UniProtKB/TrEMBL annotation:
Its EC number is 2.7.4.9. GO terms for biological process: dTDP biosynthetic process; dTTP biosynthetic process; dUDP biosynthetic process. Residues 10-180 form the Thymidylate kinase-like domain. This is Thymidylate kinase. It comes from Phytomonospora endophytica. Phosphorylation of dTMP to form dTDP in both de novo and salvage pathways of dTTP synthesis. ATP binds at residues 10-17. It catalyses: dTMP + ATP = dTDP + ADP. Keywords: ATP-binding, Kinase, Nucleotide biosynthesis, Nucleotide-binding, Transferase. Belongs to the thymidylate kinase family. InterPro entries: P-loop_NTPase, Thymidylate_kin-like_dom, Thymidylate_kinase.
Amino acid sequence: MKPILIAVVGIDGAGKTSQAHELAGWLRGGDWHVRYVPNQTLLPVRRALDRIAVEDGLGDHTELLDADTMRLLASGARLAALHDALVEPAPVTVVDRYTYCQYAAARLLKAGNEDVLRRLNRELPTPDLTLYLDIEPVEAQRRIKARGVDEETLEFLGGFRDAYRSLPEYESFTIIDAGGDFGTVQGFLREPVRELLAGL
């Protein structure tokens, strides 16, 4: 059987991490051998860069390196994590975020490195199913505030949503209404996954 790759993407506050993790668990409960690839955080790298910035008399990493360089670091870390997972793929791989998240962020911030990011990732496979968690910016902002880790403006969240919609790959995404409660949204995710696997 050809290995299946499922990506879960969307703006901040859409529920990507919790929904992708739950989806992988559900598949394992159905006797599928599943590899779950979590989001590759750059937090340790940012903290190390913050220390270097302070040593140099700067505020933090944002004054040490520009946004394009940080995005390139994030893309490199993501590529390494995905490469390791896909060299010897499991029957089903569920990925929390994919390259499309990087491209949308580059468009949102009007960065000039989307082409470089795409070329960096060109050997990665196209997912068999990309689940885009669509959510209104107001609800996304409410969820972000509730978890109490960070904050995002409505302008940022709305712009991020528009950036995703402008991607050439967007037409191939399966759009999931992510505005409901956790269980309802998880049910929406499972429907296209069930259809995909039933056709194998």
